[in-house]
Amino acid sequence: MNKRHSAFDVVITIILLSICCALAAAIIMNMQKGTSDDGATEAGMGPGSGMTNTSQSQVVNVSVATAASSTFLKTTKMNGEIGSEGHDIDVFAEIGGQVTQLTIKKGDAVQAGDVIATVDPSKPGAQYKASPVTAPVTGTVESVSVAVGATITTSTSIATIAGDKTLVITAKIPEKYLGTLENGMSATFTTAAWADRTYDAILTYISPTVDTSTRTVDIELDIIGDTAGLKEGMYISLDLITEQIDDCITVPTSAISTFLNDSVVYVVKEGTAKRQIVTTGSSNDTQTVILSGLSEGDQVIVVGSAGDGVAVNVLD
Q: For residue range 132-179, what is the model confidence (pLDDT) as tens digits?
């Protein structure tokens, strides 16, 4: 019995020794392999080796905008309507009688002084010289109220003439913008009918009162230059230029961030991103004025996450 136990113990011991030897051999082989890999890494760190030293900083691809002097515009968008300045004029004869001639029809253009009708004041047993009726203003015939052969009095309207009208823009601007308004400001506008055309206008009137129900101020603008295609009553989309700064440096607003409560941008200098503290001014939807901290020609990072001192590659 003791002999059997001794033989068993020997077998177990041999098995355990074999396992230990195998583990030791595996450890030694792994240590040798690691040493070989380290040598290969060190040997492969030179240019063109195809190996990369992970301790080296990565180069970040970025896109930049070059700081340059330009004109900054800030606009306020609103809706408006095209109206007109001018009046419709009713035309009367100086004497009563029978209309013997009409030389106009609806839609005709007339000049002040043009003869538009003739009235014969003759009565039975008497004859008078026919009297001409002339247009009192230059404009367009809106309507004709009588026909040839009709008997009229001096209070009968013969026709209505729309005097030459000047198209104007009327709009309402929110009260909060009142402090930015002054006559002479420029504007542009478009219409639904001519969406591909941009028209120019200039601010000529600011109401002295505020509409208490809408908290808006009435304004009027004169249309400058070409008015082709514009009609009274048209609905428009208006961009009023409420601020203009000439010869200033601007950058995309997205390029500005905050570092320790300072406004900063990142500029590229000798292939490296450098943090630059800036003083900002007015902003619009896309651009911000830089009052100090940048010079013309500086390349400001607008796309790409690169911190101060990080190597960068500027993409075209």
A: 999 998 888 999 999 999 999 999 999 999 877 789 999 999 998 888
Q: How far apart are CA 231 and CA 222, in angstroms?
A: 14
Rounded CA-CA distance 207/214 in Å is 14
Give CB contacts under 8 A, 24+ apart, made by 274-277.
274/308, 274/309, 275/307, 275/308
User: Of residues 129 and 182, which shows the higher confidence score?
Assistant: 182
Contacts of residue 149, defined as CB under 8 A and 6 or more positions apart, other chains included, come to: 98, 99, 100
Count of Cβ atoms closer than 10 Å to residue 201 Cβ: 25
Q: What angle do CA 255, 256, 260 make, to 5 degrees?
A: 140
Calculate the alpha carbon distances from 303 to 91, 250, 255, 277 in Å.
Answer: 69, 16, 8, 18
CB atoms within 10 A of CB 259: 13
Q: What is the pTM of this model?
A: 0.54
